[in-house]
Amino acid sequence: MPLFSPPSLDDLIRLLKAWRFWVLGACVGGLIGAGLYLIVPSPYRARATVLVDFNLEQAWPQETDRQQFYYLERETRKLEEIAWSDVVMQAVAENDGALTVEELRKGKLRLGQPAEGGWHFYAEDRDPARAQRLASAWAKAFEEQARRKIADSAGLNSFIEVTATQTENLPVERSVPMGMYLLSGAIAFLVMGSLIVLFFDGGMRKEER
């Protein structure tokens, strides 16, 4: 069928020459994206920070780089498990009073940059104040539980230090910025326009010939 035939060189040339169409399409798509951002905006995202210092030089002073790498990987995984543990999640849920542990784990919370340095604890919600409370509660619960494990020598190296550095007046922003809506709208409109020009308009012209 002409509709599904591959585009010819003439079709591609015609497509490239239609620069006015691309400019107009990008503007229209961007406006549609901006409208979606205003009508159905993305939730707010707050970020709390906990500093994790493995003190590698003290924990493994004489070991090789390979052994140190495995040490960091192993201890990082343990700390990640603590961050998502039932104890920590339950503490966050109790602090909120309305969310369940299951809801928290299904996209409400997100852990970023789990390595040596600042660990970022993200929380998303339609209410920016609530997103801040969730992120703060998660970071504090993680710090408390990790310190307890370290003090009790319960599976974590005693040289690890965990300190919450940012749990108040947290930065909060939209999880998806307006620029992403504008870009997505423009790209979507241009893609649809290309398909129309290449397949429908091109197919009709071939039938006329």
Textual characterization of the structure:
- There is one protein chain.
- With about 210 residues, this protein is of the alpha+beta class.
- It contains 8 helices and 5 strands.
- Strands 1, 2, 3, 4 and 5 form a 5-stranded antiparallel β-sheet that branches.
- A hairpin with a 4-residue loop joins strand 2 and strand 3.
- Helix 2 (about 20-40) packs across helix 8 (about 180-209) and helix 5 (about 85-95) packs antiparallel against helix 7 (about 130-150).
- It is elongated and about 70 Å long.
The number of distinct helices, counting runs of at least 4 residues, comes to 8
SS elements, strand count: 5
Helix content: 55-70%
Mind summarizing the main beta sheet?
5 strands, antiparallel
What's the SSE pattern?
A: HHEHHHHEEHEEH
What integer value in Å does the Rg equal? 26 Å
Low-pLDDT segments, ≥5 res: 202-209
Secondary-structure-derived class:
alpha+beta
3D shape:
elongated
What's the rounded overall pLDDT mean? 80
For the terminal residues, how far apart are their CA atoms? 15 Å
- Strand proportion, as a percent range, falls in 15-25%
